[in-house]
Amino acid sequence: MDQSKAAGADHQGRTYEDFEPFCKWHNRDNVVEVHLQGFRKEQLSVRTTNAGMLTIHGERPLDQTKSTWSRFHKELKLPNNCDTNRVAAKFAAGVLTITMPPKVVAQPPQSPQEDDQKQQLANREKLPRLDNQTNNDEALAKLIKQNQVVNATNDENAALLEEEVKQGSSCQFQQRISLASKKHIAVKFVLVVAAVVALGFGAYVLYKHGHHMLI
Predict the structure, then answer these.
(1) Beta-bridge partners for 9
(2) Does the predicted TM-score (pTM) go above 0.70?
(3) Chain centroid to CA 75: how far?
(4) pLDDT in tens, 165-211
(5) What gap in Å lies between CA 119 and CA 147, rounded to an integer?
(6) What's the CA angle centered on 189, arms 183 and 190, to 5 degrees?
(7) pLDDT in tens, 6-48
(8) I want to staple 7 with a disulfide (CB 3.0 to 4.6 A). Which of 16, 42, 85, 159 is the partner?
(9) CA separation for the pair 122, 128 (Å, rounded)
(10) Other C-beta atoms within 10 Å of 23: how many?
(11) Residues 6+ apart with CB under 8 A from 77
(12) Burial of 74 (0-12, 13-18, 19+ CB in 10 A)
């Protein structure tokens, strides 16, 4: 609510009634709203000072004779990070809105050498990904090669085992043939011995028989 107080007349014969307008701060956005019902834009003044202050002033007549005027004068401390060159004011529907934007920190100009260093750093950040991909490909190729070597070794071992089995079978067969031959020879030997014995016995009988006849 406005707080008005009477003031003395000036040299123009005006009588002023000073008042304190209602202000609403929006600290988050560095915005202040000043409620000034009955005022017009041309009756207001908003300025900044080198001391970091914001001054708001306004006055308007209260009657048609313009002998009595309403006025206010307000000073506000600007935020520490406020850019005074970008302070803006807007008046609409009896509300004066003042925006005090923060300073934009300008980035120092970079030398060509710094640009080259940044570019090299960016390239280095990309290189590990390529190296990792290359290492992965090489590891995969190595694994495939090892698998092929293992398969070849397994095939070679299988072939050797099969050859050993064949050789073992052949040896067993030859052993069987040798054993059979030995058995056959033994049978023949027995038969020959039996025949010799039979022949000898027959000769002996004939000899005895002949000798008996001579007597």
Answers:
(1) 15
(2) no
(3) 53
(4) 555 555 554 565 566 566 667 666 767 666 666 676 666 655 555 54
(5) 42
(6) 90
(7) 555 565 678 999 999 999 998 888 899 999 999 999 999 999 9
(8) 16
(9) 11
(10) 14
(11) 52, 53, 54
(12) middle
Q: Which sign, positive or negative, has the C-alpha torsion 29, 30, 34, 40? A: negative
For the beta carbon of residue 36, count every other beta carbon within 10 angstroms. 23
Give me the residues paired with residue 74 across strands. 56
Q: Which residue has the tokens 């060159």?
A: 85
> How many other CB atoms sit within 10 Å of the CB of residue 18?
15
Tokens of 211: 């000798």
- What does the chain look like in DSSP terms, one character per residue? --EEEEEEE-TTS-EEEEEE-EEEEETTTTEEEEE-TT--GGGEEEEE-TTSEEEEEEEEESSTT--EEEEEEEEEEPPTTB-GGG-EEEEETTEEEEE-PBPPPPPPPPPHHHHHHHHHHHHHHHHHHHHHHHHHHHHHHHHHHHHHHHHHHHHHHHHHHHHHHHHHHHHHHHHHHHHHHHHHHHHHHHHHHHHHHHHHHHHHHHHHHHHHHH-
**Cα angle, residue 129 at apex, residues 127 and 131 outer, rounded to 5°:** 70
